[in-house]
Specification:
- With about 220 residues, this protein is α/β, with parallel strands linked by helices.
- The protein has a domain at about 10-125: 3-Layer(aba) Sandwich (Rossmann fold).
- Helices cover about 35% and strands about 15% of the residues.
- The protein contains nine helices and six strands.
- The protein has helices at about 20-30, 45-50, 65-70, 85-95, 105-110, 110-120, 150-165, 175-185, 215-224, and strands at about 10-15, 40, 60, 75-80, 95-105, 125.
- Strands 3-2-4-5-1-6 form a six-stranded parallel sheet, sandwiched between helices.
- α2 (about 45-50) links the parallel β2 and β3.
- The longest helix is centred in the C-terminal third of the chain and has 16 residues, at about 150-165.
- The relative contact order is 0.14.
């Protein structure tokens, strides 16, 4: 069963921070709270983190050790990274007596909602100057920017549009139209056919002859 969370929501914070700056921000937080007993918790690479914080009087533990040691508590619990399971984070915060802080990079920020759903509330996020996520470059718009019009110019444009819309359309000249129709050639170019007429006058082909060809010279010889 996870430890009961006793820290106030105002003292439970998340500091967004790029991964490469986490150790630097961690050192800054430890310096600011040097009078308090501090425990730093991580999910992996505990030996490397202990080496980085060797000059500080703080305890660095892995989640496995924290869970097994039920008496391990401190005024300040700093989560260096995101635990493998959300329930383990509840265990971390439950060991904090006054304040709980977690450093979260951009990738961890995407799965933070799992912990917040388990807690039933959002965790307060507080940016530290100099440790913000790098801003992504905005896409430049190659299209030319429109010049902003003054109030007087807008009125002139609106007036011109109104005048154009109310201007009378050219009247239809019936006489000119009839004159144009007179010039058109008259007559029906469609060929009419009566019943029985054929559409084409192609010559008929002679029917093919069938049977065996008889040569006249051969016949005369047989008569002789």
């Amino acid at each position: 069963m996870p430890a009961t969370i006793t820290v106030k929501p105002a003292n439970h914070k998340i500091h967004p921070c790029p991964q490469e700056k986490k150790v630097e921000l961690l050192e800054k937080i430890i310096d600011q709270n040097s009078t308090q007993e501090t425990v730093v918790v991580c999910s992996k690479d505990v030996a490397q983190l202990q080496e980085s914080l060797a000059k500080y009087d703080v305890k660095v533990v892995e989640d496995k050790e924290l869970v097994q040691n039920k008496s391990l508590r401190a005024a300040l619990i700093i989560s260096y990274d995101m635990p493998v399971e959300p329930i383990v984070y509840v265990e971390r915060v439950g060991r904090a007596q006054e304040m709980a802080v977690m450093l979260v990079n951009e990738e961890e920020q995407r799965v933070l909602y799992k912990i917040e759903m388990l807690l039933g509330r959002a965790i307060k996020q507080e940016k530290v100057e100099g440790f913000e996520y790098p801003q992504k470059a905005k896409k430049t718009d190659s299209r030319p920017t429109r010049k902003k019009l003054s109030k007087e110019e807008i009125k002139e444009v609106a007036k011109k549009r109104y005048e154009d819309s109310t201007r009378e359309a050219p009247k239809f000249d019936k006489e000119k139209s009839e004159r144009r129709d007179d010039k058109k050639p008259k007559g029906d170019f469609k060929k009419e056919f009566k019943k029985g007429d054929k559409k084409d006058d192609k010559p008929k082909r002679a029917p093919k002859t069938t049977g065996k060809k008889i040569f006249m010279n051969k016949v005369k010889k047989e008569k002789r």
